[in-house]
């Protein structure tokens, strides 16, 4: 990308972002560089790095490491909101305003973007007993994982689960669905028609597989119509971890090594999580 193209793109982003920023106290906050209006990443060349243009990647090491977390952006969808996440990050202290350093602050629901659910999310007595995200097993969140495509014409029912033929012994599965094709995580407006697990699909998984990490490509593993029932089935035994809002675009099916790390938020039943795949 030439510097001119960069300036044009940056201006385009600034046009989108600034009216929002001016209305709040963070007018100094920089726009999300490297993103065009459709939310996809612009490519950056080595020479551009020297022109003080940050590099934003989806893959690292020539494709060996794939980032499957979404960027946190004010336009990203958030639970049941038509307006997206909105203003969540601001520059509380800024050098341009006389501070010694730039210091940003943020405020966001813990179930925002790519995130993890702990058992306390749907079981009050688990919450009270302290089954928060700090108690999740990093061994489950890190290891061999299978990326599978589910049929695009159904939610994930028992019948669908059965048809996937996921072998015994597979402990981590990332389910790529119609949500990825529809690019729902890039749409500001929350969409209740996303694909997720129906209660019988969740039950089939619990009863017939060794899966302990369930990953999916929209804000909930459970279909909206079976929201709480599916979560209850998954989280009842406290041995299954749900990772939601994954970015599963543009890479082949197969076996990977997944690495997911939640924040150690004591007392929280949810946390943003950074997940990567390593080939
Ligand atoms: C943030 O810090 C940099 C130095 O690291 C400074 O050049 C810049 O002006 C600061 N940004 C704002 C908005 O204050
Ligand atoms: C900069 O400082 C002024 C005066 O204290 C304050 O009114 C303003 O909100 C600050 N702006 C930012 C971006 O911090
Ligand atoms: C999945 O279920 C939702 C309701 O939870 C529904 O709106 C949607 O159409 C279903 N998707 C498919 C592909 O059947």
Automatic annotation (TrEMBL):
Keywords: Extracellular matrix, Hydrolase, Secreted, Signal. Belongs to the Cyclase 1 superfamily. Gene3D superfamilies: Putative cyclase. Residues 1-23 form the signal peptide. GO terms for biological process: L-tryptophan catabolic process to kynurenine. Coiled coil: none annotated. The keyword Secreted applies. This is Arylformamidase. It comes from Handroanthus impetiginosus. PANTHER family: CYCLASE-LIKE PROTEIN 2. The keyword Signal applies. One of its GO terms (molecular function) is arylformamidase activity. Pfam families: Cyclase (PF04199). InterPro entries: KFase/CYL (IPR007325), KFase_sf (IPR037175). It is found in: Secreted, Extracellular space, Extracellular matrix. Its EC number is 3.5.1.9.
């Amino acid at each position: 990308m030439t510097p001119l193209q960069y300036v044009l793109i940056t201006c385009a982003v600034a046009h989108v972002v600034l009216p929002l920023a001016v209305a709040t106290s963070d007018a100094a906050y920089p726009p999300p560089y490297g993103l065009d209006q459709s939310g996809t990443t612009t490519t950056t060349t080595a020479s551009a790095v020297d022109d003080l243009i940050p590099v934003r990647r989806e893959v690292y090491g020539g494709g060996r490491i794939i980032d499957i977390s979404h960027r946190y952006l004010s336009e990203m969808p958030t639970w049941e909101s038509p307006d997206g996440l909105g203003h969540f990050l601001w520059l509380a202290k800024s050098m341009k305003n006389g501070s010694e350093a730039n210091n940003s602050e943020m405020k966001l629901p813990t179930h925002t973007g790519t995130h993890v659910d702990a058992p306390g999310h749907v079981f009050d007595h688990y919450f009270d007993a302290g089954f928060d995200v700090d108690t999740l097993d990093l061994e489950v969140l890190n290891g061999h994982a299978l990326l599978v495509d589910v049929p695009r014409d159904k939610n994930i029912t028992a019948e669908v689960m059965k048809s996937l033929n996921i072998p015994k012994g597979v402990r981590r599965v990332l389910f790529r669905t119609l949500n990825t094709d529809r690019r729902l995580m890039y749409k500001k407006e929350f969409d209740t028609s996303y694909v997720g697990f129906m209660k019988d699909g969740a039950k089939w998984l619990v009863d017939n597989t060794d899966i302990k990490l369930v990953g999916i490509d929209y804000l909930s593993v459970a279909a909206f119509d079976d929201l709480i029932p599916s979560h209850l089935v998954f989280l009842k035994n406290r041995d299954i971890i749900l990772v939601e809002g994954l970015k599963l675009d543009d890479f082949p099916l197969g076996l990977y090594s997944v690495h997911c790390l939640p924040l150690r938020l004591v007392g929280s039943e949810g946390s943003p999580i950074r997940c990567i795949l390593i080939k």
